[in-house]
Each structure stands twice: as C-alpha cells, then as structure tokens.
Amino acid sequence: MPKPDAETIRKSIVYKLIFILGIDPKDATEHQWLNAAMLAARDLIAEDFLKTRRAHIDNGKRMVYYLSMEFLLGRAFVNALINEGVYAEFEEAFKQLGKEFSDICEEEQDPGLGNGGLGRLAACFLDSLATLRIPAMGYGIRYQYGMFKQEIVDGQQVEKPDLWLDQDLAWQFARPNKQYSIKFGGNVQNDNGKKAWHPNEEVSAWAYDEIIPGYGGSVANPLRLWTAHAGNLFDLDDFNKGDYHSAVRAQNSDENITRVLYPNDSTDSGKELRLKQEYFLVSASVQDIVARHKCRFPDIRTLADEAAIHLNDTHPVLAIPELMRILIDEEGIEWTEAWNMCCKIFSYTNHTLMSEALETWPVDLMNRLLPRHLDIIYEINAYFLNALRAGGNFDDDFISRVSIIDESHGRRIRMGWLAVIGSHKINGVAKIHSDLMVNTIFADFAKIFPERFTNVTNGVTPRRWINIANPELTAFLDKHLGEQDWRLHLDNLTKLNKSAADAKVQAKFSAVKKAAKARLAKYIETELGITVNTDALFDVQIKRIHEYKRQALNVMHIIDRYNKILENPDADWQPRVFIFAGKAASAYYMAKKIIRLINDVARTINNDTRIRDLIKVVYIPNYSVSLAQIIIPAADLHEQISLAGTEASGTSNMKFALNGAICIGTLDGANVEILEKVGADHCYIFGNTVEQVEEIRRKGYDPLGYIERDHDLRRVVNQISQGTFSPEEPARYNDVLQPYGDFYQLMADFRSYIDTQAKVDAHYADQAAWRKSALINIANMGFFSSDRSIAEYCRNIWYIEPLSEQELPASR
Ligand code: 26W
Fold first, then answer.
1. Which of 1, 180, 334, 728 is 20 to 30 Å from 17 at the Cα level?
2. Proportion of the chain above pLDDT 90, given as a percent
3. Is the keyword ATP-binding assigned to this protein (predicted)?
C-alpha cells in the first residue's frame, strides 16, 4: 500500500470510531479518538507485519527469539507513526478533525510491562531488530497490573495497582488460536524405562501480539505476550449452590500467575508464584517456538539450525530444561543429541553482578512445582560434572563451586550456572562489566569455557530517545547533519564535532535545550505545583532506587550545598534544580527510606526562604518511559554515581549524552566507554576505581575515619542522622547511611564528588564552554545506538542475517 495521505487517514480514523468502536464522533472523548487513531495506525503496521512473516517463511529465514520477563515499551502510537513515516499525515488528519493532536497522543498510557534498564533495553532492541530487518520475535508476559503505580504520599512511596490494561484499546492482536497448556506439580514415573511427568495442575497460556514496527516501514516483528487463563476451573456446582467465592477460587489462583511483574517474593507463596511465572513464560514460549519450527520444517532435529533463543538475564533460564523436556519426552530425541542442540540454541546476557539477581531456587520448591525439570537439571549437572572430572584438571572444591546445585545453605539450584552451562555465548553489557563478570561471578566458568564469554555494550534507539522525546533536537539534527538519516546511521552525529565551538550552532542548540527545559518545568508546575527556574542547571538522577546507585550520595551533596549557601549567602552560587525519579521495589526497606529522605530534604530546602531558589529539589512520582522522555531532553547534568563495579552498564547515561547533557559519574558501567568517546574535558569522572574500591575492602574499610577527617561530611552525616530534615521524628534516618557498614562506600567518595560538583558549577557558568561540551557529547554518541548492539549480537552470538531487499522490498 502506498503511504496514505492525511485525507485517507482522517477517513480511516472516523471509520474506526464509528464502525469498530461504535461511537458517534460528536460524543467521542479524546481517549476514544486516540483508540480510533491507534486502530487506523495499526492497519499500517499489520500489513508490514504480515508481509514480514511471509518473507521469513518463504525464505526459510533463521530466527532469533528474545525471552524476557520485562519489555518497557513506552507508548506505542507516536512511535508507530514515526517509524511508518506518517506522523505529519496523522497530525494533519487531526487538524482537519478540529482536534489538538498532542492532547490525543497524551491519552495513551505506558504499558506496565517492565521495571528497569533490562526491560527498556529489551524494548530498544525490539526497535532495532525490526529496523535492521532481522527475523526476530520477542516473548514476554502480559502483566495485568504491571509493576505498580507509584504515588508519593507524605514523602513516602505508596504502591497502587497499575491499571494499564483498563484502557479500552485494541492495539494488541489477541490470538485465540495460540493457546498452550502449562503444567505444574505431580510426579515423575518410570513408564517402561522412560521418565514420564504426571502433572496435577494445568493452566492455559493465551497469546497477544504487540506488533513492533521498524523505522522506515516495511518490516514489523511480533512481541508475543502470554496471559494466564484457568480455562475450565470454574466450578459450576459450587456456583449453583450459591458458593460464588469457591466457584472461582481455583480460577483466580491460577490467573494470579500473570497478575503483576516481580511479585513480592519475601514470603514462600510469593516465591512460588515467581517460579511459576518464570516457568509459565518459558514453557509457553518454547512450546510456541517448537510448534513454529514444525510448521516450517519437517524435522525437529534441525531446530538449532533455524532458531536462536536468547535469555535476557536469569529469569527465563528454565527454558533450557523445558526445551530438553520437550525434545526428549515429547519428540523422542536421545539425551546427548538434545543437549547438543540446546547448547547451540541458547545464549544468555547477564545484566548485573548483584547477588540478588543471580537467582537460586530451593530444590524442594522445584521438586514440588516442576519435578521433571528438576530431574533434567540433575542430569545436566551430572553430565557436566562428569566431563569435568574426566578431564582431571579440577579439584573437588572447584567441582562443588561450579555444580548447579548449591549445597552450602539448604540445597538450591543456581540458575546463573545453568544459564552458563547451557548457552554457547554469555555476554555482559559494557566492557567493564563483562571483564568483571569473567573475573568474579563466572571466574570458574571462564576457566572451563573461555570461548563462551563475550561483551556487547548496550545501546539505545535514537528513534525513541531523540526523535520522539526531543522534537527540537530532531529538527536541529535534521538541519545540521545533511542527507543521510542519522536515525539509521547514528555515527553521522560526529559531523557536529566540527561545529561544536561555532557560536551560531551553539545558540541554536541553546534554544533546543531551553525548549525541553521549559516543557519539563511546565510538567513540574502542573503536577507538583513547584516552580523551577529554567536558567538554573538541571541536575538529574532518574533510575530505580537502589543503594548501589547511591541516590543518597546525591542527597549528601545537596545538603552540603545547602549548608554552604547558608554559611556564605553572598557568594556567586550557580542555581540548580535537582530532579529525582524512580521506583523502589515494594519490599526494599532501605530504598523506600531513601525516597523519603529525598522528599524530606526537598521539603526543608524548598521552603527555606534564605535559599532564594538557589536550590530546588523535585521528586517526580511514577517514573516511566514517557516521563523519561520529558525529563532526559531537559537535563544539563546527569548523575551516574554508582559505586565503581556495581552498575552493569546503565543506559540512561547514553540517552542523556545523546540529548546533550553532561555526565557526572564514577568509572562504572558504560560511563567508562562514554568517557572514552567524549573525552575527559566533557565528562566529569570522580571517585574510586574498581581496583581502589577492592583495595579499600581488602584493607578493611573505615567509614568513620572519613567522617572524622572531613568537616563537611561530618556535618552532613550528623544532620541526616540527627533529624535536621525530619524534626518530627529525629531518629527517622539514623540507619540510612549505615555509618558503620557503608557497604557502597559513600563516605569514601564524598570528597571527590563534592569537589567535582564545584568544577561543574564553574563550567556551567561559562555557557559557551558548556554548550560546546554538550554538543561534543551528542556528536560522539553514535556508538551507543542499539542498532550497533543488535548488529553485534547478530554477527557474534545469534548468527542471523537480515531480510534482504529482494526477500522483502521496502513498502513505502
Ligand atoms: C528480582 C530479580 C531482579 C533483579 C534485578 C529482576 C530485575 C532486576 C533489574 C531490574 C535488572 C536490570 O534492570 N538490570 C539493569 O540492566 C541494564 C541493561 O543491561 C543495565 O544497563 C543496568 O546497569 C542494570 O542494572
């Protein structure tokens, strides 16, 4: 179909409104107009999707399947319009309808399908996969209530259900013909020498497809999301007896599986639900992958030639024993052949060195829920350990360290180990992280399988993080970068290097930044009633709240600055607006306390008239992709201040730099590579290095020593722990800095952080110099396109080729 014009689109929208949604245009709300417009937009991508699928089948393309518990997609509508090249036409259509287009777009809610960087990375990757014409499919869960909606009440996080599915839209395609039965429990019996699983619980997985359009049109790939259905568990007898509660009890309990992302696992039933959820995702997905293969090819034995399955962190690792189960128990393939196939098919990305994310499951729980899988895991372990023993190079101590079964505190299954043993490639997400992975958590495995370990530095999609998020910067780049589209060739940004010092270019960029700051200021004013000065330096830290990310260190700087302004009010202070956003996991006590501290400090300082708006502290509730799209373009400075060695990569650092913000950060994660690209004059690095952090730990870290030696630090620590910011409850924060433990070494990095912040002020005072640095940041971000990351995965890990122009001609 040729690209439709505004008139055609207007007719299509009105048609959808009347004939699909059954609404009189005269009565339609903005939200209903959005739904109609989304249906009209979906027609365009649906056509691409069907053609893409046909091209995969006709050309026998090898496919990659990306399994992830999270996909933080953000809004779909504007993204689809930009990728399909019809944004202007839709805007014009709404003009003809007499509607404000931006109001319509604002009606869309973010899907609640993710939590952190891992989920957003998966979403950037889907965009790049489709854009690069890679035969690919994502698999995830369609959580009914997402993670949670965060409200800040009296300075504290309150979790409310995120009712994102309640919006009455039909964006996803329901696939009632794609249902798989997911089984749990029961036992394993020996039937004629063959192991047979006799489960005693069953729930149905139903598919919904979200279509992911690539930039430039023509290719669209599916993201298949599963939802749990209890099927025939409705008890008509109970119902007819009037016991309505019992009638649906079993149904409810099974459908809980896809209720929320990361159910609180601090209780036993929470843990069980988590494990069920993980198995539910992988079982439905692996069954689907096998079914798809059988539709296209005659022999299941060729699966490893036709399919790559990628495990996004350890959460979907049960896919390995699940595929083994299907190959052996259902397809009759002999054990060794099945195992060789698995090791070719799977690859795994590690996203964090934090021990909490390297999941382990109690053997008892696995035995109760998935006894056949436990068997298979034992067999995999025996096969692996026997081969090691046969090689004769490893002692018993080593063997017990690499065993999938951890015998040290109750018997537990180490899912990270299973991932490494069953994958042909294992990658970290930034150079420093991949090195640490090989030298720390997976050091033993790197001795056994050195060829398996590799790095793919993360990236972000410029389509969302510039084109959608920052229309002013988009126009600026379109004007300055010439013909070849930077959206597809982000390296083109390097052209900006030569004009970074040009006063005219700087002035234009300054207007770009100012517009974004004004937009954010308006949001803050409307949502929180706080007025901020757009000439102030916008200093931003937005990410999950976690001790390792050290939001508390940021707060310590704010308090120190507050103290110094009060001490020396007439000095030439650079006004700053400190902006925070992020959610704390619902069971994470200390992270929630940090949120409260930020809000208490904000309340105290924002209301202190002596500060004369030289400091404003703003906590923006309910962090989301859409909020990030407003905040990131407006930042002058971004805080990437994790303790060195703890942040695997970070991806907001890339988004900020791409939007012309300057980094203040430690030598951690992707900061290291950003520094390499932009140079030390345009990136503020402070604090101890990984080696120094380790040395401090080795020698015995003494946080009190730092506190005693540094007057400013002592004052800040005392104020926090003695209740300056919580006079109504002075002891509220006496545990928050852990002065006797300080595991994340805030005290050790405080001085260097404060001194570096002073350098930032001086730099910002010279606006021309600052703009130049900002432009140099943008110019050197080409490497951090997720297109580059995906090209590396395809080449080095998945061995996947894109659809050629012959296989699928460009449609528009
Ligand atoms: C409870 C299990 C668990 C633990 C941690 C689930 C999920 C998580 C995180 C949310 C995982 C995550 O988002 N990791 C981030 O992944 C990004 C993409 O690679 C990296 O840039 C971040 O550094 C890393 O923290």
1. 1
2. 90
3. no
